[in-house]
Specification:
The chain is 91% helix and 0% strand. The protein is built from three helices and no strands. The model has no long low-confidence stretch (mean pLDDT 91). The chain is mainly α. Helix 1 packs antiparallel against helix 2 and helix 2 runs antiparallel to helix 3. It has one domain. It starts with a helix and ends with a helix.
Length: 89
C-alpha cells in the first residue's frame, strides 16, 4: 500500500516536471527544468527499485544532456552575435 502511494507521488512529480519543461520557452531555463525533470525520473526509478537505471539517469538526464543544451544555446547565440556584427561592418 505504501509503495503504491510512493509510485503515484513519483509519477505525479515526473508529470509536473515534464510539464514545466514543455512550458518553459527560454532554452537556457529549459535546460535547468530538464535537469530537474531528470532528477524527478531518478526518484521514480529509485521508488521502482531500479538503482542502476537511477544512477544512469542521474549522470545522463540530470547532468550531461542539460549541459549539452546549455553549450549549444551559448554557441548559437555567440555565432548569431558575430554574424550580426559582421553584417554591420
Amino acid at each position: 500500500m505504501t509503495a503504491d502511494v510512493l509510485v503515484v507521488v513519483a509519477l505525479a512529480l515526473v508529470a509536473v516536471a515534464g510539464t514545466a519543461v514543455v512550458l518553459t520557452h527560454d532554452p537556457a531555463r529549459q535546460a535547468v527544468t530538464l535537469s530537474l525533470s531528470g532528477l524527478a525520473l531518478t526518484v521514480l526509478f529509485v521508488v521502482l527499485q531500479a538503482p542502476d537505471v537511477a544512477l544512469a539517469q542521474v549522470a545522463v538526464g540530470s547532468a550531461v544532456v542539460p549541459l549539452m543544451v546549455v553549450l549549444a544555446v551559448r554557441t548559437t547565440r555567440t555565432l548569431a552575435a558575430r554574424h550580426r556584427e559582421q553584417k554591420r561592418t
